[in-house]
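Example (one chain per record):
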Amino acid sequence: MYTRQNQRDLTSAQKKRFTAAVLELKRNGTYDSLVRTHDKYFVPDRDSRLRVGHMSPSFFPWHRCYLLAFERELREIDPSVSVPYWDWTTDSSPVSSLWAEDFLGGTGRTGDRRVMTGPFAYDKGNWTVTVGVMEAAYLTRNLGRPQNPISLPTRAELQWAIDEPVYDASPWDSTAAGFRNKLEGWAAPKSERWRNHNKVHQWIGGHMTGGTAPNDPAFWLHHAFVDLIWDRWQQKHPRSGYLPAVPPGPGDAQRGRVLALDEPMPPWNVTPREMFGHQGIYRYA
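Predicted structure:
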């Protein structure tokens, strides 16, 4: 059993080991393969195919599986490494420690949004973006979107999601009620397009705004916190389980498009039920 730490508590040596392991995964091709996996399963709800990664009930268990796949690869390179989490309700500034030169690097420069600092800057020669042909070959960010400012989610916004006792609801998509959608972030009031998880992607900007978002290593720290929030919700609502418990019935427009509790999630063939807990694998500090 290992520990996922808050990124603000990492020592400089831990930051260096994490970024070195990520760079090695990039060098050996594993990292880009993982980015392609996320892009493949980023299916919008206007599409008639199975939605497993986003805009669907399996958002949390699918991303838990995905984070574990990444973390296993990291730990094969350096067993001391785990994925840190970023509490964006607290570290909510473009000058927070995770954006420093010794960790993820900062925002993109004016004009082309190209990240110029940190280990993932294109000019360092170790981070060429190859997945997502419409994007630049260099990593892009636009922290806080200064030209049209957006803020990171507040503790109140996050609590609004955690307080919701129902996991998910028909039609199981970007319009659904329930905790999953309040946290994933499509269930925003008309005055505000994004909430929580989605708002964080928009706040970072650049590569983080599409299906190939894991091109930015900030993705993993964001999703580790999302995973931790799922834990908090389960503890607060112990009688509220994953929904739908059974597949949508014949005639339901979502039949074959969302996964029930005991249906396997591609590409791992693991069910949402099997991803309910992570006891014995990792814990959160």
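Caption: The chain has one domain: 2-284.
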